[in-house]
Each structure stands twice: as structure tokens, then as C-alpha cells.
Amino acid sequence: MSILIKNVLHHGKKTDVLIEKNRFAKISPRLEAPADKVINGEGKAIVPAFYNTHCHAAMSILRGYGDDKPLFAWLREDIWPIEARLTAADIYTASRLAVLEMIKSGTVFFADMYFFAEETMRAVKEMGIRAAVSLVEMDMFDPAQTTAKIAATKDFLAAENPCPERIVKGLSCHSVYTVSAELLEYASRTAADNNLFMQIHVSETAAENAECVEKYGVTPTARLDSFGLLTNKTMLAHAVHLSAADTETIRARGSFLSHNPVSNLKLNSGLFAFADLYAAMPDKITIGTDGASSNNNLSMIESVKTASLAAKLQAGSAVAGKAAEVYRAATVNGAAAFGLDAGEIREGALADCLLINMNHPFMVPAYNLVSDLVYAADSACITDVICDGRPVMENGHVDGEEEIVADARQLAEKILSL
Amino acid sequence: MSILIKNVLHHGKKTDVLIEKNRFAKISPRLEAPADKVINGEGKAIVPAFYNTHCHAAMSILRGYGDDKPLFAWLREDIWPIEARLTAADIYTASRLAVLEMIKSGTVFFADMYFFAEETMRAVKEMGIRAAVSLVEMDMFDPAQTTAKIAATKDFLAAENPCPERIVKGLSCHSVYTVSAELLEYASRTAADNNLFMQIHVSETAAENAECVEKYGVTPTARLDSFGLLTNKTMLAHAVHLSAADTETIRARGSFLSHNPVSNLKLNSGLFAFADLYAAMPDKITIGTDGASSNNNLSMIESVKTASLAAKLQAGSAVAGKAAEVYRAATVNGAAAFGLDAGEIREGALADCLLINMNHPFMVPAYNLVSDLVYAADSACITDVICDGRPVMENGHVDGEEEIVADARQLAEKILSL
User: Fold this and answer.
1) In chain B, whose CA is at the least distance from the CA of A100?
2) Residues forming CATH 3.20.20.140 domain(s) in chain A
3) Is there a smaller number of Cβ atoms within 10 Å at the N or the C end of chain B?
């Protein structure tokens, strides 16, 4: 398939963009190439799509269920009892809802950590975006669960990838407080043997750090490092409470950080040290939404603004967390973290992009596109989303969205009756 | 004019809503009243519109101009030189852009503080929303300016209100650090004599407090109170750095607070003590966007979420700044502050409302409407806006929006050439 986008704004100038197969083939004014599909880009800008580096996608089905409660009461009373009863089919329905809201808000990739990962892959394959999907390793230090998790992971990794062109299978360890040494070691060895991406929650709360130091005498980062879990294919989610030594370890290993600004504020986890961490490793800072249960949406275009605002507060400076920095984190850095040659509108790069309605008042007068995207825009400004050279949203509409929403409503009724 | 909205969700149940003239006349299932206009509410919810209690609307034309710079460098190098050269016609063009973005994001009222207020009134009248408009009193302690401001204010107040049904004229004092005792006294006396609403920036930054204490020996709140400027018609904007005594004074006087969460974070002003202040005076806490230059949009649906997130951080508790609290602040409290019997969908109340697309994935599965509006929705979920019994946005479209955007672009070109 080829797509020709005519008269679209790119770096402030009107140009044409030719997509061939899944890459940007040519970016130049007045292209006269034949194409299977022509998109009129008049009044629109072409910009990178977003790459969401930490998500529990299927939790969108629990959006707004038991909000404004203390974290553990909410997990114990509301979330865990429901999660325990969700079926594989439910996770498929819920993942479709999540992918739909991601597309609507400009996201073409997410790194996921949840149960029934094969169902999330099915949703991603059908809906045309990208994902790094993993089963979540979590045994609560129970040897029976360790054995079960290892067996499940072997099955997961052995099964055929339903969509290798857009989905990568990896591993995730939930955290140092939920995963035994045996399972951490298995995960580390398996990742190394198979060259897998790894996702881990780290230092999300001060309590996590305190418990880890008490139990093991080291910080969560140091503990993970002692198992060889910090590599340049590791994505550390949250990382709110890092010591200077932790930061140096992470930098030395070339690991990535997924900053989840909305979740950290909503759950009162603390403030990510964006300015210092970005200064230390500008290529390694990425942005995620976390699950909808602790956000309560999967909008990266909202999260970039919150990341910037939180960075200014954390650093005590209105010039911290600059628009261009959080934007880079949410686009090219997030893509690079999972090995994608994407996140930029550039000849040869993977053809992922958004078209932005420059006539939306949030985008007017348009002195500075990146500033407007970060500080002024919301998802209403996004009209089209292209992923891997194929349109997944056109003029605000996603194929099949009515059915996805209807199915999600039906599942919610079941959840309410559980 | 009468409007009948059929089959719309209200408090979770499908109902019909009849608007006669500018009020909700009847809310009941299966209404068979004749109406000039029938709106199909299928798949939508009817909810209150937003009331923005602190704005400098025309600054939308400076959106994104010189971002990510320190506050005073930005004001001195970027903003003030341009503001000094804006004409009355420019303020009209800029105000229309601001009103357009407010309508698109669900706002039907704003309290404004800027120059050429008569031009802002013209835009508001034409576009069908509400405003409390004031000339900004600011003399920089220069007696010549004091005299000029008093003369200008007399003219402003003497001139006919072009739209008394939707616009109220009031006064504003910029702040204790920009307004002389003479002008504060004039403003206080004039407000009292004419029963006017008053808007004042107070304790926005720690520096403002320190300077005020050094110069006058009292806090900004105490200084304003000594001039009789704190009444139950006073809106105090920002109020980030209040002492316990300040809070008690404000509570005793019945004044209102306008919390501007995005601006406070973007300019690194500090954190508003939402939880404590809401507990002390739940009817008096309202929400504003500030001008687009320090935000950079006028989206109240974004500001309510930021208000909640900032409240949790400030209080150190995930249950602070509950969805229902920030939502009340942004709707019924904001309306009441300016004497409007509005901000609720209730028979007899002024007919201001939004229709929300309940099929947008952010609004699914819909366990809790207020939680979803605050934590999940953005402006893309709003399809229709009604103000004072008349539609100002229908299915996402505002009459004349193309011309407003074109005019704003032309003005921006002039600004860039200044």
C-alpha cells in the first residue's frame, strides 16, 4: 500500500509526503507519485505519533471504578477481586477499548504488562497499531506460583507471534516487592538468552524503597541490577524515588525510564526528577500513561503536558521540563526504547504519524508547533493517525469503534454484576 | 426560543429536557412539548457547563509566544512590548479566538481582566456566552497613571452595557504590587457605591508576599482587606501563598478564590492548598484557566483534572481534591460567584449545559460520570454547548469559527512583524 499526503505542513512549510509500504519514502513539495490512497493535508500538520512506554491496557475497562480511595483499599476492595474473575475474552474486549482510546489520542505503540497477553496481541493485530507485550512475572514469593509463572512464560514465548511486523513479545517483572529471587533470576536469564525487552516497575513509592532496603539492604534498582536485569533493553517504569547511585547505575547500563506523570500525581506516588534525569540521559527518558485505572485515560497528548508541569514543580523552575524535551521523550525516545526506527517524520523512518487540525483554536495562532502540541492541544486536535503505513484513524473515525464501545459496555455490566 | 433535548442521559437515566427562553423549564422522560428546536440526545449526557473565574482572554493571541523562559524575561522581552502595541480591533479579534476555544472546551462564562474591555464585550455578545468584564486597574504607583485609570474606569462604567443579559461589568485591581493606595481606595469605593464584582490577583508568588510584607508590614490579603476590597463580590485569583490568618479573613468576608492550577504549575508559582481551603469554604472555591500565555489553553475540562492532581500532591494524599469537589468548584461555585443561578441541570436554573458524547472511549464504560468527566475526558468528548438557552456549539461546530481563526492568523502575522 502507498499513501500520498498532499499539502501538509511539515516544519512550518507545506509539503507532500509519500508513504510506500510501511516507511516514509519521500518528503518534498509537489510530489507527483502514483499512490493507492491520497489524503488532502490542507490545513493540517504532520507530526510524529506518540509511543506509550508503560501501560496496563486492559485496565481501561475499570476506568473510574472506585476512584478517590486510598491505594491499597482501592486495590483490595475494588480492583483485585474483579481482576481475579476476568476471562481471556474479557481481556480482548478491554484491550480493544484501550487501543481505541490510544488511537483517538494519537498513540501508535504501547508497552504493556498484564494478564492474558495473547488477547492483547489479538486486539493490537486487528486494530493496526504496535505493542511490546509481556506476561507479568509476579509470584508473591510463593514457590507454587513461581513454578506456574515459569511454565506460563515458556508457553507464552513458545507460541507464535501473531503479528511480528508490529508486535514484539518480551518479559516483565512486576517489582522487587512481588517477585521472588528465583523468578527474577529466571526472567533475567530468559531475557538474556532470547534478547528480549524487559519491563519492570521500580521505586514507584517511598514505601517500596524502604521495604526493599529493610529486606535486602539495597535499593530496588541495586537489587534488580544484582540479577542482571538492567540492560539497554530494560524499561524501568515510574522511577520516582531514585538515589544518585541508582541513577548512575541506570545510566551506566543504558536502561530506559518510563515517566508516568499522571499516575504518579493521581496516586500521590511522588515527583519524578525529570530535569535532572533528562540532563543525565536525554535519550533514555520516555513517557507512559500507566493503566486507565490510575490516570484515568491513556492520552499521551495529555501526559506530555502533565510531564512538563510536574517537571517545573519538581525542579522549582518554570524553564524545567521544556516542551521540546517532554515531546522528544514521548515520541522518538519511546520508539527507540523498543527498537523502532520511528517517532520522527523523516524519509526512511517507519511511517507512523498524526495529522493535526491547524484550524482548531488550540493550535492558533501557531507561533511554535511543539509548544502548542504540548501545552495547548488535546486529542480534539488530532484528525488522522497512520501506523506502519496504514491509516488507523481517518477524520476522527476508527473502523469498528461503535462495536468496540458496545462490547465494552456489555463487559462493564458483567463486572458490575460480579 | 425553546429547545427540546430528547433521550439524553441525566444522572444515569434517559430523560427529556425542555428549555424555554433561557431556563430549564422541565426535566422529565417522554416530554411532548412543542419546541422551536429538537436535539437528539441519544448516546449523550447532559451536564453543567464550566465557569472560568479568572482569565485574560485576549492573550490567546500570544499562545506559545516565547515559552519556557523565566517569567520576567518573558514578560519584559516578549509579552509587554507586544501588548503595548495591540489596538482595540486586535483585542476584538483575539477575544473571539479565546471565546471560540472556550466554547469548544465547554466553557460558557469567564471573568476577564484585560485592556480594551469593550472589545471583549463585543466578542462575548456576538458569540453567545457570558462574561464578567473589567478594566484592569494598574498604575505602577505613578500619579499620572492613577488619574488616567480613574478617568478610563469612569468612562467604562458609564458606557452602556451592550449585553446586560449575559455580561456584567465590574472592576479589577491587578495586585498590591502594581496598584497605588489611591487607586485601591478609588476601586473599593466605586465597587461599594455601585455594588460591583471585583477581581484581584493575590499572593500568586512567594515574592509578592515578601515584598508586600517588607513594604507595608502586612500580607497582600491583609492590605486588600484594609481597603475594604474583600467582600462577598470579590474574586481573589491564584491565592497560592495564604497564611492561616489570610484564609480566615477571606472566609469571614465571604470572598471567593479562583484556583488556576495549570498557570500555577507552568509559571512555578507554587501549590494552591485546595484540600484545606475547600474544607474551610466549600462554596467559595472556583477554578480559572488564567490567560493562554501562561497555560497555554483556556480548557476548563483540562484544568479540573490538573486541579485534582495538584491537590493530591499538595495535601500528600491520593484522596484529596476529589473529582466531585473540583467539578463543583468549576461549575456551580463559579457560576454562583458571579450571581448566576446556573452550573446545575435543574428546573428553573439558567439553561447553560454541555452534551457529552458517551460513545467516546474516554467515557466508556461509565461507572461514574463525574469521575470520568474530571479524570478521563478532554474537549473531544463535548459535542454541544448551550448558553442562556441558545446553542453556541452543535455537533462540534461553532458558527463562524473559520473566519475567527483566519482573522487570528492575520493578527499573528502583524504581531510577528511588529
Assistant:
1) B361
2) 50-337
3) C
Question: What predicted TM-score, i.e. pTM, was given to this entire model?
Answer: 0.98
Architecture of domain B2-48+349-366+375-401: Roll (2.30)
Residues of A in contact with B306 (CB under 8 A): 306, 309
Contact B412 A366 (CB under 8 A): yes
Q: Chain A contacts of B316, Cβ < 8 Å?
A: 268
> Long-range contacts made by residues B71-78, C-beta under 8 angstroms, separation at least 24?
B71/A318, B71/B267
Q: Cβ separation of B297 and A362 shorter than 8 Å?
A: yes
Residue B42: band (very low, low, confident or very high) from pLDDT cuts 50, 70, 90 = very high
CATH class label, A2-48+351-401: mainly beta
The closest of A88, A161, A106, A163 to A352, measured between CA atoms, is A106
What pLDDT shows up at residue A101? 98
Alpha-carbon distance A313 to nearest alpha carbon in chain B (angstroms) = 6
Would you state the pLDDT for residue A67? 80
Cβ B274 vs Cβ B311: under 8 Å: yes
Q: Choose among B63, B265, B318: nearest Cβ to A268.
A: B318
pLDDT in the model for residue A251: 98
Instruction: Report pLDDT digits (tens) over B98-147.
Output: 999 999 999 999 999 999 999 999 999 999 999 999 989 999 999 999 99
Homologous superfamily assigned to B50-337: Metal-dependent hydrolases (3.20.20.140)
B378 and A299: CB-CB below 8 Å? Answer: yes
Residue B55: band (very low, low, confident or very high) from pLDDT cuts 50, 70, 90: very high
Out of A297, A309, A376, the one facing B64 most closely (by C-beta) is A376
Q: What ipTM is given for this predicted complex? A: 0.97
Which one of A63, A309, A362 has the shortest CB-CB distance to B266?
Answer: A309
pLDDT for A76 equals 84
**Three-class DSSP labels, B162-192:** CCCCCEEEEEEECCCCCCCHHHHHHHHHHHH
Q: Are A378 and A302 in contact (CB under 8 A)?
A: yes
Q: Residues of A with CB below 8 A from B375's CB?
A: 64, 67, 266, 295-297
